């Protein structure tokens, strides 16, 4: 999670919402990404999406069933869909997102009968630091 939190910090420095993601395969990091929708002019450039794309490219396959995803914020519905389609084995995330999250909040994507793959889910890892990054980022914009 430390690497994902560092990526989130880089996102904040680039004036992106501070979210970072890391894909781990066989105990080693294969992809790291930070949120970049504004930088890339791409509404789908969430940290999770970028990390999953890079891991799939580097591993040369679309199924990442032997990979884990570490992300600093509860994934949204778009990212949860990508996690399911990529067949990510385990999802570890930091801060919960009652407003935009789709794992334990909102649509609870992985609990739906139409979801064809459900990763193991481990919430709250690095939650305090991830939450503080997000609160600080948004507080600075409200001043």
Describe this structure in words.
With 143 residues, the chain is of the alpha/beta class. The protein is built from five helices and five strands; from the N terminus they run αββααβαββα. The protein has a five-stranded mixed sheet. A hairpin with a 2-residue loop joins strand 1 and strand 2. The mean pLDDT is 97.
- The chain-level mean pLDDT equals 97
Order of secondary-structure elements = HEEHHEHEEH
Largest sheet: 5 strands, mixed
What's the gyration radius in Å? 14 Å
> Roughly what fraction of the amino acids lie in strands?
15-25%
The total beta strand count reads: 5
Range of helix content: 25-40%
Parts with pLDDT < 50 across at least 5 consecutive residues = none
The DSSP helix count reads: 5
Shape: globular
- Order of neighbouring strands in the sheet with most strands: 2-1-3-4-5
Structural class: alpha/beta
Terminal-residue CA separation: 30 Å
List the helices and strands and how they pair.
Layout: H1 2-13, E1 20-25, E2 28-34, H2 37-40, H3 47-59, E3 67-73, H4 77-86, E4 90-95, E5 120-123, H5 127-142
Parallel strand pairs: 3-4, 4-5
Antiparallel strand pairs: 1-2, 1-3
Helix pairs in contact: 1-5, 3-4
Short descriptors:
single chain; five-stranded mixed β-sheet; alpha/beta; 143 residues; globular
Describe this structure in a few short sentences.
The protein has five helices and five strands; from the N terminus they run αββααβαββα. By secondary structure, it is α/β, with parallel strands linked by helices.
């Amino acid at each position: 999670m430390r690497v994902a939190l560092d990526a989130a910090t880089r996102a904040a420095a680039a004036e992106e919402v501070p979210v970072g993601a890391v894909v781990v395969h066989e105990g080693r990091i294969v992809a790291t990404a930070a949120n970049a929708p504004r930088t890339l002019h791409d509404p789908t450039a969430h940290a999770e999406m970028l990390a999953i794309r890079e891991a799939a490219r580097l591993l040369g396959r679309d199924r990442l069933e032997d990979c884990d995803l570490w992300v600093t914020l509860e994934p949204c519905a778009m990212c949860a869909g990508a996690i399911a389609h990529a067949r990510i084995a385990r999802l570890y995330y930091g801060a919960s997102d009652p407003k935009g999250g789709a794992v334990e909040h909102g649509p609870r994507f992985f609990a739906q009968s139409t979801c064809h793959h459900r990763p193991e889910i481990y919430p709250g890892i690095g939650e305090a630091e991830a939450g503080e990054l997000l609160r600080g980022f948004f507080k600075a914009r409200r001043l």
